[in-house]
Amino acid sequence: MADVEMRQQKAAGSSEVLLEVKNLKKYFQVRTGFIKKTDLKAVDDVSFVIHKGETLGIVGESGCGKTTLGRTILRLEEPTSGDIRYEGQSIMGKDMNEYRSRMQIVFQDPYASLDPRKTVSDIIGEAMDIQKLYTSKEERRDKILNLMQLVGLNHDFYNRFPHEFSGGQRQRIGIARALAVDPGFIVCDEPVSALDVSIQAQIINMLEELQETKQLTYLFIAHDLAIVKHISTRIGVMYLGHMVELDESADLYRNPLHPYTQMLLSAIPIANPDLSAKRKRIKLQGEIPSPLDPPSGCPFRTRCPRAQKCCAEQMPELREVSSGHFVACHIL
């Protein structure tokens, strides 16, 4: 998989690469006995690139490694091995304080990600304090008020505490906090999954507007395939710590090739009852394997209706099967 990034970049034409992830692995040691410890392979040999200004969506079942991937890219979790390059420079082994002003995250849970003891101004301004991005208290206040206005928060909220806000308002505070250091890249870790459906659309639309006005690049992690399709330029599908398919958003939904991707897309509800009745739902057999004891070869083979002998013998390589469309499957 050493040249996956090069092929992905070539497939995207002349777009400038912002982030490169090469053979990234993140293993957690889990105690499975009194003395014995086993590696839980949360992210296992994942490679991709993200181009400036695009949104790469990451989808998959709960526990597939999506969130760990995002956190590891930002080195909130230290990688087990692999390389992460931002604007052509490896960030491995470097002091991340330099990169915190360029790479930020919006967390999934707006209730748990905000310090209840701090006011809105302190939450948004904390990163400014660390990075020393102002020269006076007046400048700090003006920057915070501008950010609040940018994400749709009233200036009257400046000295209020998180418990006084709804989930949607809290997530807006979290987004303002991420924008406080003027980053170029933001990991959106399921930013709307904890919100009401009516609020989800508002947050997604705001993220799209912010991307356009501030030239942002997103890694958008979600399990809602409809939302990912709406916001993403390209989509990567993860299963049991591996990237199994990667393609342009519209093309992936029109022509999914990996059996797991086909199963995920067949599960999307359709509002039209006539079309829904005609569509064939793909049902998978078997249980989801444990990441502590993954299957040999292809991680999906124990649930795949088309699995063959070779699938148990060797891990399939993520390869380009058509222009810009990458799939990890032996039978394609």
Protein model, in words:
The longest helix is centred in the middle third of the chain and has 18 residues, at 197-214. This protein has helices at 4-11, 66-73, 120-131, 137-150, 167-179, 197-214, 225-231, 249-254, 259-266, 273-278, 309-313, and strands at 17-31, 37-51, 55-59, 81-86, 89-90, 103-106, 185-189, 217-221, 234-239, 242-248, 318-322, 325-328. The chain has 332 residues and is an alpha/beta fold. It is 32% helix and 24% strand. The protein has eleven helices and twelve strands. Residues 10-14 have low confidence and may be disordered. The protein is globular. Strands 6-7-8-3-9-10-12-11 form an eight-stranded mixed β-sheet, with helices on both faces. Strands 2-1-4-5 form a four-stranded antiparallel β-sheet. Helix 3 packs across helix 4 (137-150), helix 3 packs parallel to helix 5 (167-179) and helix 4 packs across helix 5.
Key descriptive features of the protein:
single chain, 332 residues, 4-stranded antiparallel sheet, 8-stranded mixed sheet, alpha/beta, 32% helix
